[in-house]
Design a protein that fits this description.
193 residues, mainly alpha, 6 helices, 0% strand, DUF6944
Length: 193
Amino acid sequence: MDNQIQALFGSLINTIGTTIAAIGNTPSIIKSEEASTSLELVGGTLQATGGALVADSIKKYSLGKLGIQLKVIGNLITIIAIVATANEEDRIKLEIQESLTEATGGGLSFVAALEEEPTPLSLYEIYGSFLETVGYSMVALAGIKTLRGEDSETINTIGWWIEVIGSVIGFIGVAKGIRNESGQPEASWLETD
């Protein structure tokens, strides 16, 4: 698979997974704990798969690639927390570790994006990585609040949806970058006319 197409496909799968997991973590949409857990598992699996495809499409080892790999590891921790953990407290602790691992990966991706030559296109990666990192951090904070017996529902839900926004922005940046390199106008794929 061409590296650009692989990166685009991986980014799309990751964005879909992030959205599914966010829906599962939105109590106003999903009322059942079982449905929430199932959506989180499916979403985490898609995020890990998409992230792995994106990381694999980057042939040169870099800070950005390491950041993506850490986010994949975080998603794998989520899968382990859901599938292999019977104790609720242990699951929450693993999910905190997952979110902090992803926040670290997002932070590395953010720093890597800042180190690139600034272009209008690089802003997508900068803002996307920044928002994802904020979202991961909020979800980790929500987990800590849950362990303390404090209300964490709102901060968790907001954190997840900030992750979605960051992921969508990142996906748009990947898609626009591919369009630019193929010689087509930057926003042609977004036109509806």
